[in-house]
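Exercise: predict the fold of this chain.
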Amino acid sequence: MKYIQLILVFVTLLFIVSCKKESKSNQITNPKDYQAFLETDSNKTLEFINTEYNFWSTKLEKTPNQYPYYSKLASTNSQLFQLTGNIENLKEAEENLLKVNEKTNFNNAGYLRALARNYISQHRFKEALTLLKKAEINGEKLQQTNLMLIDVYLELGNLKKVETYLSKIKNVKNFDYLIRLSKYNDHLGKLDNAIKYLEQSLAIAKSSKNNTLIQWNYTNLADYYGHAGRIEDSYNAYLSALELNPNNSYAKKEIAWIVFSYERNPNVALRILDAITKENTSPDYFLLK
């Protein structure tokens, strides 16, 4: 009996030691890497967009007959939604875009695409598709319409249509083509190809020195790295996005997810999420908490 008890004690200790070793080996993140991004006192981008919102609101109030101002105002609404997660901003953008489309009898391709983009953000993909088909018939800046049609058909799962429109815009040196080709390959389950094309698009984004594109590319590439089990690469890509924009709530959320799901440290993950929800009220972050 004592012999069995000794074996049980030994096995228990062995299990504890192995768990500690596993926990230590799973440690990838370091609070020193991202702590400064959780303590940002101001959001210069948010301040700038609020200034733009006030500017166009005043212009529209003084000259309500200038309907293009509705589009300008909608753009600031959309940017505010992206930064704060406040759904009211997205709905206000929709209202302004409906007004400018009504003024142009739903015959301006640019305004149709803008409203379609709003519907995509609301996951109203079929309504977005109807608008984009009108924009396609209009023919103005058709390349931009084709790009958005690929996005919508991907969301609707119509891969034959995706293939058709990809063939229309094929250019392996074009950023917009590569990121959609990457998404298409991800839908097909070809993750290695999806990563390859996003790495190529990142090189193009860097050469353009467009921080918005680079930041977007880093977060999407980080997602794919995570799906491929390349957790450290994923973490470093999110950090790269935060270096470009310390207020990137999505990148912070994904670091919190790595801390929770991979490192098994819910307390630290919750601390990160608490910092995010002070600046972004999107339900995604509260749901994760």
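Check your answer against the key: The CA atoms of residues 112 and 139 lie 12 Å apart.
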